[in-house]
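Predict structure. Chain length: 173.
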Amino acid sequence: MKKPNPNPEPLEQMLRVDHAGEYGANRIYEGQLKILGKSKLAPELKHMLEQEREHLKKFDELLVEHKARPSALMPLWHIGGIALGVGSALLGEKAAMACTVAVEEAIDEHYQEQEEALPEGDLKEIVKKFRAEELEHRDKGLEHHAEEMPGYEVFTGIIKGGCKAAIWLAKRF
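Prediction complete.
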């Protein structure tokens, strides 16, 4: 028997965090494409960006539908996402893919918690679908040798910590 979540996220808070996360993911891939747009990774990055755009579009719609406000920190998510994307790409293709792995693993954990807490319904199905796509992105990063990046564990640990801090902030602001 599954234990109910003792602290379910209010719907508005959940939508705000998910919207902010998808917005940041869009900026990360855009930043990576600014540097790696002509590389062998470009088609993969463009594909992942297209999926992230669909996720963001859906959360834009859900914010309106549920009268939820976006994060007040959107300018921070914009600058931070672009900086992380450009910065990781400047370190090379393996670093860009390590960034993808780290972000997608953090998002997977976040979506898994939501999936477990949500009742059956459309929103749960959306979270499940998006979570599966985020895991595909993680797997693509691993296929492109992310783990071969020197300092991989430290690099991805820092990025995951940043993602968790961003989730904490977006819940509140």
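Summary: The first helix runs from residue 11 to 36.
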